[in-house]
Amino acid sequence: LPLQQLWESRKWDRKDDLREETEPGKLRIPILFPPPTAPKKFFVSSEFDLFAVTKERNLLRHAWSERAGGMGWQLVMEQVPPSASHFAMGPDEDGKQLFLSFKVQNRELTICQLATGESRSIFFNEWKPSRFPDFFFMEQEFHYMNDEYCWSFSFQQEVRVQKNSIGSSNRFVSWYETLQQRTETGKTGISFTWSVLKNIHHVFINQQGNLVFNKHELVLDRAGHLQLLSAERESRGVAAAAQYDSVRNEFVFPGGNKVKVHRSGMIILERVGDSPGPVYIPAALDASLAAATDMHFSGNMYYYPNVQNEPLIKLSVPGFYEENIRSFIQHVLQCS
Question: What phi, psi does 116 have (nearest 5°)?
């Protein structure tokens, strides 16, 4: 085939196992995210899992349980290749998930094995627009087709490519249409209009002893729900303010306690010294929230991950708040 091979072996920042060790500086997120707002692309894997690629170049999977139905979104990968517009997903013969991305501008096609982060790339120079615009996964290979040919791409020591005539067989067309239909039905009933706090410019602790992000106050209400609510005027007095570190993309309080913001909608509290570890809080506004550490979970079960190797231990919201969030605030004030 007249395909220019581009050998490339690189590590992607993957989140396939949320409990595994990650590289220093990389985030582990043991809790689900709010729905993506205005995502770049939706697609389903060959196993009918619904995925979204966000504007922030994160890959999210819609979580589902038989008992609860649709839930939050699992972070699968960060830093999806920039300018990629076509995506597909499916398992290899060992059951390990493979992720394909394709850039129309330069015809670069990349396949990543999520379990290892290893990827291989080629330039698919024979690509042309087709009435079947999306790549898809079938029989342990990725495919792209038009009315005449079907190209197959397999992840080996290099990306192996085969080109075959479509002929009279319609099995590829039938499977392609099934995946397209599953993508549309998968989005049905999911709201993507949530208000999610992503662009945070100011972080401080107010005179009432609560964390404030821009003009939204993190509160434990009388009913025992954790919420991000619009801060009243009397709640905007500053007791301790964090400074933004543009190099590390984090807010740092005096004494070194930190707040990180994941732009797909997650707030992370990191306490210096001997502490129980980071606290993760979905950044949805005016809604019942959840919070988690690497071991514990509390709050709205919409955010409870159902893919953990070791399930998170559920705690009451008031108890979790006092042990993890209130203690973080007190530590900040003591160090200020």
Answer: -115, -20
